[in-house]
Amino acid sequence: MLHKTRGIVLRAVKYGDTSLILSVFTELFGLQSYIVNGARSSKPKAAKGNLLQPGNILEMVVYHQDIKNIHRISEFKLGYIYTSIQLNVVKNTVALYIIELLQKCLKQPEQHLDLYYFTENTLQLLDMAPMPAIANLPLYYTLKVGEQLGFKLNGRFTEYTPYLDLQEGNFTDLPPHHSYHLDPDCSELTDKLFQCAQMQDLITVTMSKDKRRKLLYAYLDFFQLHLPDFTEMHSPPILHEILDA
């Protein structure tokens, strides 16, 4: 059957002489694989293959059957046209981090409507955002993805609960008897980030580059604790190098 759905391209792999196999996080069906024939042809009409780059947001008409692992796309076009992400190295690197995080988290073809809408909105906001708001975006997005996947942080930072236990996902009065926790300073910053309602609020959370780097790796440890098949990411070192430049 044919279905209309939006989707975010996560990966495009060459297949045969002219085709691509896409990994797409779709609105209706979650993570799906699609084969697109002729996407790499030298013919002018095949320039549409340029629309299939990772990070692009598509409007698609797709053939879908639950019993199949690879589906076909009948029609596709850009669902949002970026104005700065592909031109700005900082924004582009943040977008690639977002895409890699999704690749690590999404393993099954399950619908995740809230996560899909949040991610699409984040990419569009990233495209329009002023530069000062971008540095904290990877931290904010990572925390919110954890919430969408079911392991949100519980409680709040206070003088009585100054430690964030990453293993249990809550704020505690004393440091736990394991290494997966944040000190009071990092715990307070995490609480401030988590409470931000919109991207502009991220500007108000100030921290050093070293602190930002430390927090991101702590959040990724948090993911490894709660997602058994979550493997090491390759984009954070590049992200920090670009953000620190």
TrEMBL record:
<dbReference type="InterPro" id="IPR003717">
    <property type="entry name" value="RecO"/>
</dbReference>
<dbReference type="GO" id="GO:0006302">
    <property type="term" value="P:double-strand break repair"/>
</dbReference>
<dbReference type="InterPro" id="IPR012340">
    <property type="entry name" value="NA-bd_OB-fold"/>
</dbReference>
<keyword id="KW-0234">DNA repair</keyword>
<dbReference type="InterPro" id="IPR022572">
    <property type="entry name" value="DNA_rep/recomb_RecO_N"/>
</dbReference>
<dbReference type="Pfam" id="PF11967">
    <property type="entry name" value="RecO_N"/>
</dbReference>
<dbReference type="Pfam" id="PF02565">
    <property type="entry name" value="RecO_C"/>
</dbReference>
<dbReference type="GO" id="GO:0006310">
    <property type="term" value="P:DNA recombination"/>
</dbReference>
<keyword id="KW-0233">DNA recombination</keyword>
<comment type="similarity">
    <text>Belongs to the RecO family.</text>
</comment>
<protein>
    <recommendedName>
        <fullName>DNA repair protein RecO</fullName>
    </recommendedName>
</protein>
<feature type="domain" description="DNA replication/recombination mediator RecO N-terminal">
    <location>
        <begin position="1"/>
        <end position="77"/>
    </location>
</feature>
<keyword id="KW-0227">DNA damage</keyword>
<dbReference type="GO" id="GO:0043590">
    <property type="term" value="C:bacterial nucleoid"/>
</dbReference>
<comment type="function">
    <text>Involved in DNA repair and RecF pathway recombination.</text>
</comment>
